[in-house]
Amino acid sequence: MAVTFSDLHTEQGVKSVEDHLAGKTYISGDQLSVDDVKVYAAVSEKPSDAFPNASKWYDCVASQLAKSFPGKAVGVSIGGSAAQAELFSMDCDQAPATAAADEDDDDMDLFGDETEEEKKAAEEREAAKKDTKKPKESGKSSVLMEVKPWDDETDMKKLEACVRAVEMPGLLWGASKLVPVGYGIKKLTIMLTIVDDLVSPDNLIEDYLTCEPNNEYIQSVDIVAFNKI
After folding, report:
1. For the residues of 148-168, what is the DSSP string, one character each?
2. How far apart are CA 89 and CA 87, in angstroms?
3. Which of 4, 144, 162, 166 has the greatest count of CB atoms below 10 A from its CB?
């Protein structure tokens, strides 16, 4: 049932709000509504302590409106109190609004409800958080190495065995072949696949292939080709 207030710019009008709010928090129902906003707009200033119910209600509405309208207010004065009182004494059903506006009252986003844009932004942030939690797959590379012996008397089978004996996470040896260099000397060309974050070709050569005991057979190692997979 519609509630009627009049002369809200006077103490008598504020007293009618005071009496209506006895035992209540809001004008209509148990949540802030358009009714509260209409009455709030018609009350020219915060009710005095002589009207504790109205004063507390006024502060509550002002606080929630401030959250929805964060811009800095400088204060305005509105003339025509009699006309203002007449406007807000009208029945809600008689208020000058279109049917479409009446239907939209329940959908008004005045007090912190998320807009579609805000919901979409929140969903995108959540999706981004989930993506950061997923383990990122490290890249891989294909490497071609040339392994050179000391001389033509080096046992190339043992040399290759030394190379393939090197094992570590992210390293996979592939096809190989012996290529003649000259004067009876052959070099070993061998393919390998590495996980970039786990294996460094330079460290593989310096710390494993050309150090003891492998340097008994291996004179030097060169990287001939390096390609990202």
Report:
1. EESSTTS-HHHHHHHHHT---
2. 6
3. 162
224: CB partners within 8 A, 6+ apart: 144, 145, 146, 189
Contact yes or no for 188/163 (Cβ under 8 A)? yes
What is the per-residue pLDDT across 22-71, written as a single tens digit (0 to 9) for each?
988 999 888 888 888 888 888 888 899 989 998 898 998 888 887 777 77
Long-range contact pairs involving 23-32 (C-beta distance under 8 Å, separation at least 24): 24/53, 25/57, 25/60, 26/57, 26/60, 27/3, 27/57, 28/3, 32/60, 32/61, 32/64, 32/111
pTM: 0.42
- CB burial of residue 127 (10 Å; 0-12, 13-18, 19+): exposed
Q: pLDDT > 90: what percent of the chain?
A: 41
Type of residue at 50: A
pLDDT in tens, 143-169: 999 999 999 999 999 999 999 999 999
Region of residue 142 (left: phi > 0; alpha: psi -120 to 50; beta: else)? beta
Candidate CATH numbers 3.10.450.50, 2.60.40.2310, 3.30.70.60, 3.40.50.970; the one for domain 140-228: 3.30.70.60
